[in-house]
Amino acid sequence: MVIDQMKTLNSFFVLIVLALFSFNINAQDLEVIYHETTIYKPAGEEIVFDIEIINISALEQTVFLVRTINDLPAGLGWTSSLCFGESCFAPSVDSVATSGGAFPPVQPNDTLLASVHVVTQNNIGTAYIQVQIGTFRNPNDRTIIDYIATTDLAISVEEEFNVNSYELEQNYPNPFNPSTQINYNITEGGLVNIKVYNILGIEVAALVNEYKPAGSYQVTFNGNDLSSGVYIYSLSVNNFIKTRKMILEK
Question: Which domain holds residue 205?
Fold first, then answer.
C-alpha cells in the first residue's frame, strides 16, 4: 500500500511538472501595440507604421520581425523597410531580430520600438505589407499585422469605411497549428465577448470578455491543448453577433 501511495504521489508530481512546463512554453511573451494599419499620404511622402513591443515575460527575449508580404506597386520604385528605433534595415532584408550588438535582447518589462517604413514615389499606388512578430523562445506564437500604405485617396477612404464597420475577420493562418490570429472591428464601445466552440457547440475557450472602446483589435487563439478538427469562433458586442469556422490541423 505504501508503494502504491508513493507511485500515486510520483505520478501527481510528474503531472504538476508537466503542467508547469506546458504553461511556460505556451505563455505569451509579448504585448504588441500598434495603431493605424491603413495610412494615406500624398505621392512622394514616406509612410511610417509604428509598433511598440513590450516584453511581459520574466525572461529576456530575442524578438524578431518577419516581413511575410511585401506587395509593392510594380515598376514604380517603391520600397519598404523594417526598423528598430531610428535604425532601418535595407529594403531587401525580410527578417530582423534583437540578437545582440546594437539590438540586444529585450529585458522584462522593457519596450522595443519598431516600425515599417514605406518610401513612395511621385505616383499613385498602394502597397500591401504583412509583418509577423514573435520571440525565439516561442517562435510559433506570433502577432500578425497587415498594413496598407497608399497614395490613392480612393483606397484610403474605402479602407477607412471598412475599419469603421463591425466585422469579425477570418482567422489567419487557417488551417493552423497550434495558434492563429483573429482580427475584429467594433464601431462603438461595448462589452466584447469572443468565444470558441467545438463542433458539438461546447465552449472550449473564452478569448475576450471585457469592455473595449471602438477600434480594431487582434486576439490570439492557441489550440495546443485541443485535438484536430473544426472549431467555431463567435464575436458578440452590442447588438452585433457573427460566427466563423476555423480548422486546427496537427
Answer: 166-248
